[in-house]
Amino acid sequence: MSFPSWLSQLYRGLSRPIRRTTQPIWGSLYRSLVQSSQRRNPEFSSFAVRTNTCGELRSSHLGQEVTLCGWIQYRRQNTFLVLRDFHGLVQVVIPQDESAASVRKILCEAPVESVVQVSGTVISRPAGQENPKMPTGEIEIKVKTAELLNACKKLPFEIKDFMKKTEALRLQYRYLDLRSFQMQYNLRLRSQMVMKMREYLCNLHGFVDIETPTLFKRTPGGAKEFLVPSREPGKFYSLPQSPQQFKQLLMVGGLDRYFQVARCYRDEGSRPDRQPEFTQIDIEMSFVDQTGIQSLIEGLLQYSWPNDKDPVVVPFPTVTFTEALATYGTDKPDTRFGMKIIDISDVFRNTEIGFLQDVLSKPHGTVKAICIPEGAKYLKRKDIESIRKFAADHFNQCSLLGKLRLECADLLETRGMVLRDPTLFSFLWVVDFPLFLPKEENPRELESAHHPFTAPHPSDIHLLYTEPKKARSQHYDLVLNGNEIGGGSIRIHNAELQRYILATLLKEDVKMLSHLLQALDYGAPPHGGIALGLDRLICLVTGSPSIRDVIAFPKSFRGHDLMSNAPDSIPSEELKPYHIRVSWPTDSKAERAH
Amino acid sequence: MSFPSWLSQLYRGLSRPIRRTTQPIWGSLYRSLVQSSQRRNPEFSSFAVRTNTCGELRSSHLGQEVTLCGWIQYRRQNTFLVLRDFHGLVQVVIPQDESAASVRKILCEAPVESVVQVSGTVISRPAGQENPKMPTGEIEIKVKTAELLNACKKLPFEIKDFMKKTEALRLQYRYLDLRSFQMQYNLRLRSQMVMKMREYLCNLHGFVDIETPTLFKRTPGGAKEFLVPSREPGKFYSLPQSPQQFKQLLMVGGLDRYFQVARCYRDEGSRPDRQPEFTQIDIEMSFVDQTGIQSLIEGLLQYSWPNDKDPVVVPFPTVTFTEALATYGTDKPDTRFGMKIIDISDVFRNTEIGFLQDVLSKPHGTVKAICIPEGAKYLKRKDIESIRKFAADHFNQCSLLGKLRLECADLLETRGMVLRDPTLFSFLWVVDFPLFLPKEENPRELESAHHPFTAPHPSDIHLLYTEPKKARSQHYDLVLNGNEIGGGSIRIHNAELQRYILATLLKEDVKMLSHLLQALDYGAPPHGGIALGLDRLICLVTGSPSIRDVIAFPKSFRGHDLMSNAPDSIPSEELKPYHIRVSWPTDSKAERAH
């Protein structure tokens, strides 16, 4: 999909909205971000050599002597130059008189994307030359002095080409990509939204921001944890997937409202749109129940929601896991549109159609349908064919109907129906998950549906001792437009119950968690929490195609940093202090010999 | 060293100030922290099952029905129970009438440090039984209902003993240690101070909070970087010591005011009072000079300084590196007291004392002295002896006089002189450091005094091509009470200069930094920044003896997590995906065989 370049937008006249979101343009971008977070504007030029930003100048600045610093965006016939900074663009008049020869030389000769500093006066543009589509379009700068701060070497490609090129090129030259409107917007919105979350948690509700270690020990079942060799032979730290244990220990320690914007690590090899390190808004509190956490999060999102979007309406609707599966065929339903799954078994109870008869005669056999609104009007014969094929391809997968529902939505939108309003953010709580699932490799054994510290549903505690498979948990997921953006639970605070679940039901080695079990024994308060996936949330809020668009320096889907070329080879003598050696795969030994 | 326990403080009557800082007591702690950060108090009981915190109740709450949750602090003769939460203590009257037998049973039988929930009415204490030293000392709670939320198992030691015990025990049972007044105070002050820093940077000055990767590639000379094996044979990520390269690349990317509360990593093996992971307030901005960064930081500290300390006075004084060495014998002088080093060569110019004659006849030969105020009054003969011995032990070390100055200060304070006011925070900028130092292993080669991206002093650029050893840099250190708490510099933004310094002067492999050099070529703005060591700063602000006292879950000085026992052994099959094997030292193979 094409990445919206702010450059091309500017050339086209700036105000074209970007697909799937209504993006503010340079200038109004800052107004909206700034208004949402504080009463007065930040001072963007404090402590700097400039007096103003390029993007802030208006008619109200007429006559002022200003110093601006920025990048040369483009030059028109050696008479005008457009200077850019993060705040926007401003037109600079290149002086033509003989006395300004040196200034003219600098401004005419510096390549595009060079960095210059100019001082001069804010003047009106001549009548008829105003540009109403440009926030600074009423004024221009009459230059007195200019300095070339840094010349830009000729880029190995045209900026226009670059913007159209592959994501790999964008990642390799990330520092150029970051100059784009879209990346500036995404990263600044992210910063603002996190700041508002901190204000809500810390200033309004007394949460304490506490940093927890990332050099930790491996956790049971933590197969996706990166390892960090220590200087003790055979001893490794692990980079944890979340601060789960630490946040529970903080509750035991009486720090009863904790949050952290926590860096987490997960080694999933090559999975699209995942990152080996990611960020979560990590929250835990004591003396709280499920509804307490839900209200907290609803308030958090409402408070931190960007001003340029429609306000968040609370409370969010809630469905149970069972309802979600029955109605949407998934535990993370996209509730921006209907097309719910309907049980139409009763209609066919007396059918004579053979295969339906077969199905309905079986225990739990049902016939289900999705009603596609105006399907007959929008869908073509080949669409119906593709739906039929999709169904056949996914036959016997229980999530078929859920996938089919999304497939049909895509088809309808391809055909011109507006099914999912791009300005709509549809939050949903999914609750009452099962506490355990059968293990994939051995379905007679159990594994935690989420993690082993999740408390059972209060009504289902007795089931732990009789039919643990049927026990529901106090886990809750937060879903936004069909994406899971958060999950949490009330935790087990009773050491006996925790031991029973770990040792007897899950058959885990409790020794690895002895510190946590001991902590529960020494006055652990009832507690619960949640973690929001920040990268995914910002990705949805900004309408970005990938989480890589809301991270300053993301890794490629293979986990590479394409700019610096990480991970990198390490000389074997640098491995020695860590008592490790590389085990070269036999087939690559030959390669190395070359 | 004795760790001030809030428990023992409470038993003693709460108001004793702790050595070296004036600590607020429970109750007033929160007032001071809260007032410093926002106009209205946070709602500490929102979303929770309690109606109030234990510590907030006053006469103004009389008659209110409240629900409190907390830990049993102690019980007096089965008639009173003192309940504790993070906010403070409150007295609960154990009901004696027959109808309340079940409530009484719960409250009388629950062990100390158990967690209970009580509901009841706020009543006055009987006349004469008020406790003016306790913030809630005018009231008590008449209980109606009580619930034991979690019983505390018998602790393996008395809490009183625990508080007196070794730091190792405190680290092993960190969740108990966190319940202490001091740890609660330290971590909450840290959270508040960082929040204020964010408000200053983000809301007042338009900085953008940007997260940078911690899975990166090794940097030249990065011998202290932890390694993270990847799934590609022989390829490793490195955990960077700072976001230095990323923050410079952000400047090239036009994000011209960046900050991050950044987790950094440094593998220094066992060094006292260092942590393998630590936190820095990381800042970078474009179009700025040294004084701009200095003013920014002065404003930052002034704005975020806790209300219960004397306000920070700005601007901070500045000394050059050369002056600092000459006057204080160190580049991080403690300026809370005088006792400066004075050159008294002239006095002895015509001396007949042989060894002084010898010294003064040599080039650069000087005689220097420290005047100890009232030394004759305070210091005893054996003190003079110990000073003489100290001088002999450190003979021929150029930092001798600086060490001697601190040694004398310690001695004077031991003898009762108040030399360093415990409420005084004395900031100092040290500037004009040398750009290069001779390499320790080969003094004919150069290494960067700080890092290779530091810009030379504008007056000394020509020296790079003639006498690079004499070139000063645009590096600046921030010193507080004799501790380096921050350092930064104006960076090189010119690719040619950066290449010359890396390749020609430092003889580094520029291939490892080709991405950064390329970025400088493509329109890098002039930029500079700083990093403040957050752990050290909070340690000094709270007057803590060690940075471990301002970190929730610190490692021991050997890099161990004594609570969870990290780092830990890893089964060899879990090493396979990372293509590494453990190289067991030969002498430990035998051990393993057992």
UniProtKB/TrEMBL annotation, chains A, B:
Pfam families: tRNA-synt_2, tRNA_anti-codon. GO terms for cellular component: mitochondrion. Keywords: Aminoacyl-tRNA synthetase, ATP-binding, Ligase, Nucleotide-binding, Protein biosynthesis. It comes from the Eukaryota. The keyword DNA repair does not apply. Gene3D superfamilies: Bira Bifunctional Protein, Domain 2, GAD-like domain, Nucleic acid-binding proteins. InterPro entries: Aa-tRNA-synt_II, aa-tRNA-synth_II, aa-tRNA-synth_II/BPL/LPL, Asp-tRNA-ligase_1, Asp-tRNA-ligase_1_N, Asp/Asn-tRNA-synth_IIb, AspRS_core, GAD-like_sf. GO terms for biological process: aspartyl-tRNA aminoacylation. One of its GO terms (molecular function) is aspartate-tRNA ligase activity. Residues 187-554 form the Aminoacyl-transfer RNA synthetases class-II family profile domain. Belongs to the class-II aminoacyl-tRNA synthetase family. Type 1 subfamily. This is Aspartyl-tRNA synthetase 2, mitochondrial. It comes from Papio anubis.
